[in-house]
Design goal:
mainly alpha
């Protein structure tokens, strides 16, 4: 069963306490150290109000599946999707247009350099 890659999970593999900060780091692509420092800073600013929310999140969030990503490249892809789905869709469309253009170039090359193939294609039209 595939787990949704756009879901926030607790990351117990890289956890210091309950895995909430490392899960947020995995979800956003930000280094876990900076997420932890942000939580500590926010705790001081908010007068300790973040501590109950941390433990609530630790209880409510599901544990990250051990094999959610195939490799680091796939993990970075899904982090980009979560950060900006529209930008990712544009990047994919641009890659597909580039592949389509390159295939058209290959087709043109082989058809123009192979008169027999060119004649066969013309006969089929």
């Amino acid at each position: 069963m595939n787990s949704p890659r756009t879901t926030l999970y607790r990351d117990k593999q890289n956890a210091k306490l309950m895995g909430v900060c490392s899960g947020i780091a995995d979800y956003t692509g930000v280094n876990a150290f900076w997420v932890r420092m942000g939580l500590i800073g926010l705790t001081f600013v908010a007068g300790g109000m973040t501590i109950p929310f941390y433990f609530i999140a630790g209880i409510l969030l599901n544990k990250k599946p051990p094999h959610l990503y195939v490799d680091r490249e796939e993990q970075q892809y899904w982090q980009r999707v979560r950060q900006s789905p529209k930008r990712t869709a544009r990047e994919i469309r641009a890659r597909m247009r580039d592949i389509d253009r390159r295939l058209a170039d290959v087709e043109t090359y082989y058809v123009s350099s192979n008169p027999r193939l060119n004649a066969e294609i013309e006969r089929l039209r």
